[in-house]
Amino acid sequence: MKFFLVLLISYLLGSIPFGYLIGRKNKVDLRRHGSGNIGATNAFRVLGPQVGLLVLLCDVAKGFLPVLIANNLFGPFYGVGAGLAVMAGHNWSVFLRFQGGRGVATGAGVLIALMPGVVLIAFVIWLVVVLLTGYVSLGSILASVAVPFIALILHMPWEYYIFAVPAPIIIVIRHLPNIRRLQAGTENRIRFW
Question: Within 13 Å and on the Cβ side, how many CA atoms surround 151?
């Protein structure tokens, strides 16, 4: 019963659509602009860097806090379960008719709570890819796919692989439209210079 409650609360916290809510506060429905995604990248493109950063911080926090609390109070299985549930909530929000984001920022929040060293290296991979190519989606895909391998190299506790293996798969699946646009050469790019 306790485990179920942790999953339910984490899912509901993950379901809070910060990108949608912050967009609506700015009189914009992010689902109808840009890529149609409610995540930080689309918020950045549509509403500017300050709003994009706010969405990013909120999405990271909702991944970080429930996992940190569950992990510290009840142990790693609860932390990992909370991580998967909060990410499911973000990707398939009950408040948005089971639509949602891609799960990258929320997944990063989960990793910060469970494996900060892993997320640091994954962030470097993301940053290098984005700076070299201008594609946030490509950076997100490659960084997330690298997570289980980084965890293996850093000898993370085996329980954390319950999150570290399926989470990147979910992120890649959620990025299938981006992958198709990358193949077609129509994916949005951030230009730094």
Answer: 24
